[in-house]
Specification:
Layout (H helix, E strand, L loop, with lengths): L2 E5 L2 E3 L5 E8 L8 E6 L6 E6 L5 E3 L7 E6 L4 E6 L8 E8 L8 E4 L3 E5 L2
Parallel strand pairs: 2-11
Antiparallel strand pairs: 1-3, 3-8, 4-5, 4-9, 5-6, 7-8, 9-10, 9-11
Length: about 120
């Protein structure tokens, strides 16, 4: 059973940093695009970043310049480094694996989510 498990969320002050991890179990991430999403209370889920199988990153405008996505296929893990965090970044963050290696907004396997709270 393929699974994705997110970790690294928590409470951080504005301006702080967190690194989220998305670890794959039961399958190899190598050939798939991986996306990061977030959903804040009362808001729709937002795709914030995606990385292709060849490690080309994409970012939503809301996080570009502050967040960095990367992958370590040897560890079967994708990371999301989040810097200069703002209160509006507060949300549950999810990762998902695409069906193919390109970022085409079509995902099959989802993680359970990790909470990120940015507050003083």
């Amino acid at each position: 059973q393929p699974q994705l498990v997110e970790s690294g969320g928590g409470l951080v002050q504005p301006g702080g940093s967190l690194r989220l991890s998305c670890a794959a179990h039961g399958f190899a991430l190598d050939f798939y695009a991986i996306g990061w999403f977030r959903q804040a209370p009362g808001k729709e889920r937002e795709e914030i970043s995606c990385i292709t199988s060849s490690s080309n990153p994409n970012y939503a405008g809301s996080v570009k310049g502050r967040f960095t996505i990367s992958r370590d296929n040897a560890k079967n893990t994708v990371y999301l480094q989040m810097n200069s965090l703002k209160p509006e970044d507060t949300a549950v963050y999810y990762c998902a694996a695409g069906w193919v290696g390109e970022c085409i907004n079509d995902y099959g396997t989802w993680g359970q989510g990790t909470q990120v709270t940015v507050s003083s």
